[in-house]
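Appendix B. Extra example for self-study. Work through it before the problem class; the solution is given directly after the inputs so you can check yourself.
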Amino acid sequence: MNNNRFTNRLFTYTLLIFFMAIFLIPAYMVIITSLKSPAQISLATAWDLPNPWNFESFEVAWKAFAPFLLNSVYLVIPATLLSSLLGSLNGYVLSKWKFKGSNILFQLMLFGMFIPYQSILIPLFQFLHQIGLYGNIPGLIVVHVVYGLPITTLIFRNYYTEVPTEMIEAGSIDGAGFFGVYRHIVFPISLPGFVVVIIWQFTQIWNEFLFAITLTSGTGNEPITVAISNLAGGEAVNWNLPMAGSILAALPTLLVYLLLGRYFIRGLLAGSVKG
Amino acid sequence: MVGLKFNRDRLAAIVTLLPSVILLAIFVYGFIFQTSYSSLTDWQGIAETQVKNFIGLENYKQLFTGLLDVRFRQSLVNTFFFTLFFIIGCISLGLLFAVLLDQNIRFEGFFRLIFLYPMSLSFIVSGTVWRWLFNPMGGINRLPTLINLEPITIKWLTDRSQVWQFSWLELPKIFGLILIIVMVILALRYKNQDKQWKAWLLAGIGAVTAIWIVTGGADKIQILSYPEKHGFNLAMVGIIIAATWQMAGYVMAMYLAGIRGIPEELREAARVDGASEIEIYRQIILPMLKPITLSAMIVLGHISLKIFDLIFVMTGPDNSSTDVPGTLMFVTSFRGNEFAKGAAIATVMLIMVAMVIVPYLVNTLRSEKNYEQ
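Solution. Structure tokens for the complete assembly:
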């Protein structure tokens, strides 16, 4: 019996460690390749550790990618904050100020987060051209705010549904109106909701590619994902550079994940479990 | 007085919601309408003066039966196999990880962190790395040499061969067979639930379809005037592996949340009754996780129907062996300036996604209503 239990444990841990190794292979590869000098990189020795360690790739990658990282920063911060704030207000209305048809309206809004963006891409492309927002960061911000609204509204609506309605009513009796209740009662308790939504939107927008490549390609306003794909797409390139660039591009979202993983998972599950 | 104030707040609520509603009405529904309209025209080229003539369903007819659009048809087949293996891979790995992590193990948080970290990365980053790993002369293929074995010789992303070939002409027959299988399964289920009337109806539909195929009705539908081979492109295998690596942790997180939601008393009661741990999983936990499996399938399914970034960076957007509708739409519209055809591909994508998502949303709405009552 005891022996059996031990075998089970051993089996469980062996499996876990095996899969852990598989999951870490890409991370290992990207790190060692980025730390090799171009001359050291060959297909035959792809798995070997760098010898000597060479940090130059990061210097070169930083120089090459810094403008695009900055583009991503300029894009992500306003887009995340705006879509979170709007989502919070929408969630407040749709959970505490329901009106006839508000549930169906919510469902219609929600549909926007599932559509393949290809199905709106051509009119979007034309529309941004017409209003002068094609090829620049403000245009991308608008796009990410609008298409971020369904998920931010969803997360806040579910979050506020948990808030007891008595709290709202108490505020109303004290004479606070719609905005008063939001400012003095709802907003102050929204911090965990904002953390989840901000992390989610930050990760999504930082990592996004389809809008970025369609709406900013070749303008100098490309976010980092487009810059990486341009470099990695070329055949004759030295692999240390795209690898170092990938690490730079991955670090912000990876750090957020490592530090605030709990909230990241909550956002993840909000997108999957129930509207 | 109170009533008046109440009404003013109501109005404030609606006015607050209004900008978002208008934006989504335009950017989602308005644009979808424009795209579907464009798909019914002959719009080509980027000139502002471009005349768009209404040509009905011609673009769709071309896509599904036209000589030149064979790539679109193969992109649908690619999507089918991608979706199938991606869902199977993510759900089996996700469930396995969740069950393993549920065994009261040490460093559970650490393992969870490792299995989920790909989710925080962009497909562009992971695709770049996987492309290097799938280099035929290096990467994965050279792993065995680390323990002095011969290298593997799979061509991965550069493989041009196709397996499980079928002719596009056989599609009506294939759909008919799928219909029969679904009907038989549903009929048996209704029979077990003692809903005889429904069971017989479904069995009848299955039988009629079978007769239709056997008597050659399916062969009479000539969607093409020549046989056209499609099948599973082996170049997709690497992309499926990369996508599964990226998303399996997501499914694990969903299952873990589900398992943690099952009250411990249920397991205790079963243990007292003498059930083994494996029986507890088979009899109690797995059946309770069924709704999560459905959610996971829907989430993964709609992701796979939309897949774009990963393929763009791993094999390039204009690579016929790994075409999917997402990349093909991009190339057709923004590289080839064939906007009408691009719009038609986009509309097909939307319809496919909607078939997965709309029932799910409607169902959620309904169950929420029941919950409120």
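Self-check: The two ends of chain B are 31 Å apart (CA to CA). If your reasoning did not lead you there, revisit section 3.
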